[in-house]
Amino acid sequence: MESKKHPGLQFPIQIRFDDIDSYGHVNNVTFLTYLQDARVQLIHRSLGAAAGEGAAEEDTFYDLVGKGNFALVGRHEIEYLEPLSFRPVPVYVNIWVTHMGGSSFEFGYSVAEQDGAKVYAQATSGMVLVSKETGKPIRLTDAQRHALQEWSGDPVNFRRRPKSS
Fold first, then answer.
1. What is the pTM of this model?
2. 92: number of Cβ within 10 Å
3. What residues contact 54, with CB distance under 8 A and at least 6 apart?
4. Is residue 119 within 8 Å of 1, Cβ to Cβ?
């Protein structure tokens, strides 16, 4: 499978011995934990160049979400491409934004070698910005949209779906 470069960020994930199932490879559910680890690292990383009007470079996306709101996972889709076995070197999760709506956005991921030469899984997570007080979706702010746009990339092209044009 040809690897694509995405403008998002890359995070190393150390495979733990406990991640391995009876078949000798990383259990399918563990991949969701790897995606979560990358998502949490991205959300808590300083915005830097992704900071737009109304945000400082040292702010994080978590700061932009605010104490009165949640960025909740609404759905996951994952496709496993190659088995991943225990090893002492990390695997890398690439994360980028594939779509933005009024109150929602979607992260795309690949779990791969650092250089992208081998991809073990690809996935998406649909996220919804929700008010803690009302439990209802709220619109993304301009500052949030700016940060998400800075991390944007192509949709994930799952093998069993027609490719996006």
1. 0.90
2. 19
3. 141, 142, 143
4. yes
Question: Cα separation of 106 and 81, whole Å?
Answer: 21
Identify the DSSP state of 48.
Answer: G
Beta strands in 45-138 (DSSP E): 69-80, 91-100, 104-112, 119-131
Both tokens of 93, joined, read 């999760």
- Sorted by where each begins, the domain ranges of the chain are 9-150
- Contact (CB, 8 A) for 125 and 73: yes
Class of the CATH-defined domain 9-150: alpha beta
Residues 20-43 pLDDT 10s? 999 999 999 999 999 999 999 999
pLDDT of residue 4: 46
For the stretch 61-114, pLDDT in tens is 999 999 999 999 999 999 999 999 999 999 999 999 999 999 999 999 999 999
**Bridge partners, 13 (sequence order):** 91
Task: List all residues 6 or more positions away from 50 whose beta carbon is below 8 Å from its beta carbon.
Answer: 146, 147, 150, 151
Distance CA 165, CA 154 (A): 10
Q: Which residue matches tokens 């759905």?
A: 75
